[in-house]
Design goal:
The structure is a homotrimer.
Chain A: E1 24-29, H1 37-48, E2 53-58, H2 66-77, E3 85-89, E4 100-105, E5 110-114, H3 120-126, E6 128-133, H4 136-139, H5 151-164, E7 176-177, E8 191-193, E9 196-205, E10 210-216, H6 217-222, E11 230-237, E12 240-249, E13 261-265, E14 270-275, H7 280-283, E15 289-298
Chain lengths: ~300, ~300, ~300
């Protein structure tokens, strides 16, 4: 019963083993719950099978934001049992020639998504073993409602449910294509030297107002930064200076007073910035993307 | 396992067959997750039975908005297996003499709701075979908390759980009454002639900012409009002109540039308006209801 | 199947019986669905066991608001089957010396939470029979991601899943400590005499804009107030007068016109104020906490 948790101990050791799809479906979309789209999509899953578990990862992804879809998937994928089937629908190109696909990661996760960049971070961290284009002629819901605007309901959700339920095999999703053809977003790598680290704000935590850089904590520490150090931090949005101050590399939020800024090691082991019980994002008009340059200098 | 999906192929062919309630409960309310109401309601369901599946359709319906409750139910009902038990609680009249009921549609769905207009669209599309008033003397949760403000928890959720769990039969919900007594909201029909279609904005997609008319795409096409046509569109809110422009009847969003308006066939086969990756609703101060008149003219 | 509902009939009669943990996990946090935290936490649960049911109470608690966490837990706990395992994560002190604990109530509910005041209302209403500090050396998720910012994922969710799955017993959570050491928030008691009741706004219903006092309806009625009475109500925020008006103690919202204020008996049998289909909270700039004094006088 406890055996799956061993899979969490090391994501680095990727074993290419054969993992069968579980009857476990995890959804992320930008649909919100403001209308009936989620309920229609889940209804299709239930009509395919009563035996597939439905889990909501989130339906609050920012609209059309493929970068966030890609990052979030990578953020939580590793914590699920191998064989879990994910459905990600952030699909501004629905109805165009963008491929609808199902990827299989090197470590055994299945991901249904438009092939529009959503696989970028997962490929970087987990690797893609195989990718198949969904064959619409056999894996699309048959209904009187002929429209091409809701692939979440009619294609991704429906086909994923059939795979998770064991009605079709992975091969039956559709034809495999070369993983080198996968659409990728541009990922920027940090530059880390002795006593200095520069990178970007890769993603935000919009709830608590924290910002997460693309600098791995392990590399940061190897560069000579230690918890307890005061570090000179400069954050720029393009040319505009947003933040320029000595800041504590803290072990925990409570190491600084309420309202004070800190550098911390986030839950994915990346260097991040926060205000203790405050909102760094709003206070310093920060955001995420390659225009948000950040620099850490040892003093 | 796959047999239920056949029910999706044609909603038009309504068969009045006997469908037993499934142990599958789908909830929609205007409660939000900002306080403990949903958790209390779901707790009551779980205390009734461990064997009833609980699915959240949405708890984000606009407050007191019976029209939205009615429309959303119709939007997703057809995608669920026959026998699914729905609970809809938008209930501004809680504690008044409005009836608390359970309707059975002609095609075999069960719906617990205040009889306050929520059944309007479902009746129009699915038909109501039978309707029963919940007998509070036997189907209300017994608790020290005697109040009449939370029927979602004490009456609808509790009684629906008992039906879905097989503890009571449909007959035991309460006495049947004449479906002709059902409270109905006024539905407006579109007027469609050769080369011209007029209707209203029937509902909005508040997430993506699209607006959905009450004009069926099939009728629109029969009136001579084709995908690829430029169509003259006039939208008024009462006397106020909101939009007056030639607009493409597009096959897909990507047929127009980002930021451009298009006419499209929505997921329920109705004519709709959107801005590609933009927000028609906010841009043109649109809304939904009978005051939002829309006119399409062939050029 | 129906036996659990008897537990709802009287919360006053607390029986200290031995209740085994159910494989039923109920979560409340202040994480929101804006990023991947919930999905990571639920993934850990699923990796521990496929046999534990996951229910979302809410992830929309106000940020860092321990008072709300405490109140909401008390609001819905009683409606769940005995043995249900709750996880509450509002944790501004994560990484400090605050204890991570699992409490067992006198009537048999298990609650995983930081011991930071979250148990205040539950202790008052249900009583705490036993409390244990989670032993991080054995009950923390083993992963390459060593950080101390996400105990929801790595400690509370993981350990709760192991208890709910029967992998560990309650004793194996960690060492018991004296319930008298539990961190408590200050609760204010109302003062109720013949024809007069004074108290505070204890919590709000942020969705419908209602305010809930700490005055039990039973005591209010014993003090001589009856449904149908006009009652003189004075609400102050500190020195500032917010509301001073004769108001109907109504049986139901519809007893007053739309837009009118009423006094009503809320779903937890406490005296509350609302505007029928309006928003008392916004209209009168009300809030909750000990600075919001309210006074009811019989006329």
């Amino acid at each position: 019963m406890d055996s799956n948790t061993s899979s969490l101990t090391s994501i680095a050791t990727l074993r290419t083993e054969n993992v069968k799809p579980l009857n476990l479906l995890v959804f992320q979309t930008d649909f919100t719950y403001k209308e009936g789209a989620v309920a229609a999509m889940y209804g299709v899953v239930r009509s395919v099978s009563r035996d597939v578990e439905i889990i909501t990862a989130t339906h609050e992804l920012p609209q059309y934001d493929i970068w966030s879809a890609s990052y979030r998937l990578m953020q939580y994928l590793r914590f699920w049992p191998k064989g879990t089937v994910f459905v990600s629908v952030v699909d501004p190109g629905v109805g165009t020639s963008r491929k609808a696909c199902c990827a299989l990661t090197k470590d055994g996760y299945y991901i249904f998504t438009p092939d529009n960049g959503t696989l970028t971070h997962v490929e970087q961290v987990h690797g893609i073993r195989e990718i198949r284009e969904i064959d619409e002629s056999i894996n699309m819901l048959k209904t009187d409602l002929r429209s091409c605007v809701f692939h979440g309901r009619d294609l991704f959700g429906y086909c994923a449910a059939r795979l998770a339920a064991g009605i079709i095999t992975y091969d039956q999703v559709g034809s495999a294509y070369d993983p080198r053809e996968i659409v990728r977003l541009a990922i920027q790598e940090p530059v880390i030297t002795k006593g200095k680290a520069t990178g970007i704000l890769e993603i935000i935590d919009p709830n608590f107002g924290n910002v997460w850089t693309n600098i791995p904590t392990n590399d940061f520490v190897k560069a000579g930064f230690s918890q307890g150090d005061m570090v000179h931090v400069i954050l720029r949005h393009g040319e505009e200076l947003l933040y320029d101050r000595d800041t504590l590399f803290a072990r925990t939020f409570a190491d600084v007073d309420k309202g004070e800024t800190l550098i911390y090691n986030n839950e994915l082991m990346h260097i991040s910035l926060a205000i203790n019980q405050g909102n760094f994002l709003a206070t310093y008009h920060a955001g995420h993307g390659s225009e948000y340059h950040i620099e850490f200098m040892k003093k």
